[in-house]
């Protein structure tokens, strides 16, 4: 069995990550999951959430914004709208986005067309701050 997997994370704008990893944990539509070398092939959709991978024993956290995760033959390909490492996240910007989303949601009901948009914005802001906080604790 292989000891590492190849990991590629790609957004519509660029390849964000190309490395070898020992493990990956991600937030799927059906909940959090993890993969190790030798994992069975599968394809799943990702929700807004955190992705963590270990590269030479060092954990790296990223905030992801919707996408797809595929593993086959110890090669992981992740296609997402956005992907940011903890160091790339502007905490103040995320905090401001959270405030705007919370204010908008107070004025809307779940039947309003904009409700899901602001709900996703709030979720993104919270995940971004959570991931950014991990850079501070290192």
Overview of the structural elements:
- This protein is of the alpha+beta class and 138 residues long.
- The chain has 2 domains: 5-86, F0F1 ATP synthase delta/epsilon subunit, N-terminal (ATP Synthase, domain 1, Sandwich); 89-137, Single alpha-helices involved in coiled-coils or other helix-helix interfaces, CATH 1.20.5.
- Helices cover 28% and strands 45% of the residues.
- The chain is built from 2 helices and 8 strands.
- Strands 1, 2, 3, 4, 5, 6, 7 and 8 form an 8-stranded mixed beta sheet that branches.
- The mean pLDDT is 91.
CATH architecture field of the largest domain: Sandwich
Count of discrete structural domains: 2
- Which residues form runs of ≥5 with pLDDT under 50? none
Strand content: 35-45%
- CATH C-level label of the largest domain: Mainly Beta
Largest sheet descriptor: 8 strands, mixed
Distance between the termini: 31 Å
Question: What's the total helix number?
Answer: 2
Cα-atom Rg, whole angstroms? 16 Å
């Amino acid at each position: 069995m292989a000891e590492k997997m190849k990991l590629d994370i790609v957004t519509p704008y660029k390849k964000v990550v190309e490395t070898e990893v020992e493990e990956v944990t991600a937030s799927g539509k059906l909940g959090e999951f993890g993969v190790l070398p030798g994992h069975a092939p599968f394809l799943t959709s990702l929700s807004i959430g955190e992705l963590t991978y270990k590269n030479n024993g060092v954990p790296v956290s990223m905030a992801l914004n919707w996408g797809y995760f595929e593993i086959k033959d110890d090669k992981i390909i992740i296609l997402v709208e956005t992907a940011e490492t903890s160091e790339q996240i502007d905490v103040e910007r995320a905090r401001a986005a959270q405030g705007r989303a919370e204010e908008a949601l107070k004025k809307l009901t779940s039947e309003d067309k904009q409700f899901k948009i602001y709900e996703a914005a709030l979720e993104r802001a919270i995940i971004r701050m959570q991931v950014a906080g991990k850079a501070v604790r290192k």
